[in-house]
Amino acid sequence: MKNKKTIKFREELKDDKFYTTLKEQVTNYLEEHNYNGYATKAVYIKGAFYSLSLIYLYFYLIFSELTYPKILFVWAAVGVSGILLGLNISHDAAHKSLFRNATANKVIHYIIFNLLGANAYLWQLRHVESHHLFPNVDNCDADIDDNQIIRLSIFKEVSWYHKFQWIYAPFLYLFYTLHWTFYKDFIILDKKQLANLENIKHPTSEIILFYIAKVIYLFIFIGIPILFTNFTWIEVMVGFLVMHFASSSLFIFGLIPSHFSDLTIFSRVDDNGYLEYSWAGHQIASSLDYHAEEKWANFVFGGFNAHVAHHLFPNISHIHYPKISKFIAVLAPEYKINYKNVSWFEAINSHFRFLKKLGQN
């Protein structure tokens, strides 16, 4: 059921004409190169590489004769390989751009995300229906709501400790995937309203799968290491934490500058339910790219570094984003669109400048 005051964009603005022209260029590019917008063989090869890396590292973790604390490096590698698999493969599958077949996309998305501890169904719900439609919109974007410790929006209430958030944030970021797995998933499961969705009712099958998947995840990454290795349960738990610290660090510092930056805008609806921009204009103004046209960044971050292209074309595989980003960079000045593509180092700097400013209101 839709919210009574549906959130709306101002589609009459120039940003929409920019998007229309951009879509024509992207369509021509896909047709000229005989692409259909889905993933190419390069993505499947990359997916196989990351999958085999994760499997190998996990079994090496269980059966290797490495002593403690050397084994902690393997735990960290497991965390990194898992996140790389999620960013590059499961994310495309969630947006139905990995395969043409919808069922295949769902199966891959569910297997990878649930294997990593995050519930696939709930993430897709909040990511597609909330964040992707309304990035950086107060009370609409689940990525900035339900967070009191770190202030990530200019519209959130300021507390005295936020003046130090740019200092303590890196420590808290180490726990991001743990927070996601064991806290945020449960918060989203309990939500009845999200962006334009109201009276949310989750399918019983998804609720059952939610708890089953959490138990399986704990058994794989805590139960099996305790049962089949010579390490104590305390050493296993430390390894489990190190795995999450590694995955959290890669995830956070690869993704968080994409929106939470002093180079992006934050919005809230007016009394009539309208936002300031057109849909396309909002995606551009609320997103920050880094190395968007670089193939190495695309290989590592799965297109998250080309966030404008991703938000404008979420159903096109990330393998095409470097080319699409070139189109955006050339076309944006013609329409006086403020497209931002910086280095990764500058993106990180902009995030911490943002944290410091928001800590001072």
Secondary-structure blueprint:
Layout: H1 14-32, H2 41-63, H3 71-94, H4 102-115, H5 120-131, H6 165-173, H7 176-190, E1 193-194, E2 197-198, H8 204-228, H9 233-255, H10 279-285, E3 289-290, H11 295-301, H12 307-312, H13 321-331, E4 341-342, H14 344-359
Parallel strand pairs: 3-4
Antiparallel strand pairs: 1-2
Helix pairs in contact: 1-13, 2-3, 3-4, 3-9, 8-9
Explained architecture:
The longest helix has 25 residues, at 204-228. The chain is globular, with a radius of gyration of 21 Å. Helix content is 58%, strand content 2%. The protein has helices spanning 14-32, 41-63, 71-94, 102-115, 120-131, 165-173, 176-190, 204-228, 233-255, 279-285, 295-301, 307-312, 321-331, 344-359, and strands at residues 193-194, 197-198, 289-290, 341-342. With 361 residues, it is mainly α. The strands form 2 sheets. A two-stranded antiparallel sheet has the order 1-2. The protein has a two-stranded parallel sheet with strand order 3-4. Helix 3 (71-94) packs antiparallel against helix 4.
